Amino acid sequence: MNHPLSRWLTAVGAALALGFVPAQHALAQAAKKAQVVILATGGTIAGAGASAANSATYQAAKVPVDKLLASVPEIGNVANVRGEQVFQIASESFTNAHLLQLAKRVSALSKQKDVDGIVITHGTDTLEETAFFLNVTVRTSKPIVVVGSMRPGTALSADGALNLYNAVATAAAPAAAGKGVLVTMNDQIHTGRDVSKAVNVRPDAFKSPWGELGMVVEGQTHWFRAPVKRHTVNSEFDIDQIDALPQVDIAYGHGNASPVAYQAFAAAGAKALIHAGTGNGSVSKDVVPALRELRSKGVVIVRSSRVGGGGFVLRNAEQPDDDYDWVVAHDLNPQKARLLTALALTQTTDTKQIQRIFLEY
Ligand code: DAS
């Protein structure tokens, strides 16, 4: 039994018996798994409540990213992941500075050869804004998935763990590439462009007025639609070239409306105002003169609608936008219109160009 071949066979037999070959197989498998980076920013998905019954009373932005990843070990089955704690805040407190910093980090990571996909864990309150902003400013076709949760991990039937697993599975899915920034919530895959938080206390909170793109079930993505508006690699905006956003504010349309809020925002330096109008973005006759005067002073006026849920603001329908030189937000809600207007103003103050941008993104 001293022959070299017999010694090799003995070694192989021992290796099989001790499981080393599966380890080599496992190494080969790991090498095939996508490399996904998880950027944590806070929110309920990192929240903690006092008891399991606290599904709505809790503190957001408590659990650090390493604990978040450790709480869902199954994500290691769908990708090789590593985490970064970018912020630890409730997302209602996001500022333009947070948005720019996060987008620049996403952009930098997307350029790394050892990064195949990026997941951002985020509070749900402004999740749609971040997803929309990344969709228009990060020039990559690699999957970027924004995810949150409606219940903290400490609650009965918490949704964060599966939402996170689904987000990683989607970021690791080759089919997710080139579809722009995605949002995975409640087993659904939404485009960051359309999705909005429509319910404030249920796991099925996120809706897209034109429908979700697909679903992710047991780690597999299933697609039924693809975005048609410009995004990521087809965008004229590049976060690497943007270091500040002009101030744009939003004022709500309602009965008994007054122009005071619009005038105050403009006096405080707003370069544009988003009117979150009733119905088709309509403007009260008591507000129109003030908006026309602000427009004459160079403030860009954008009509959006407070209605949400589908449809879009029609130009020159109930308001003579051409005469007033106003812009319509088309189907974008006020909070997304604020971001697109700010981005447009980094490049132009020409309202015809700004209107084009609203129709293309
Ligand atoms: N305050 C909410 C936020 O951080 C909690 C959440 O729903 O994530 O957006």
UniProtKB/TrEMBL annotation:
Domain (Asparaginase/glutaminase C-terminal) ranges: 247-358
InterPro entries: AsnASE_II, Asp/glu_Ase-like_sf, Asparaginase/glutaminase-like, Asparaginase/glutaminase_AS1, Asparaginase/glutaminase_AS2, Asparaginase_C, L-asparaginase_C, L-asparaginase_N
Signal peptide start and end residues: 1-28
Domain L-asparaginase N-terminal span(s) in chain numbering: 35-228
Binding-site positions, substrate: 91, 124-125
GO MF annotation, one: asparaginase activity
Principal EC category: hydrolase
E.C. numbers: 3.5.1.1
Keywords from the named record: Hydrolase, Signal
The keyword Signal belongs to this UniProt entry's keyword annotation: yes
Active site: 44, 44 (o-isoaspartyl threonine intermediate), 124
Gene Ontology BP term (one): asparagine metabolic process
Protein family per UniProt: Belongs to the asparaginase 1 family.
PANTHER family: 60 KDA LYSOPHOSPHOLIPASE, L-ASPARAGINASE
Protein name: Type II asparaginase
Organism: Aquabacterium lacunae
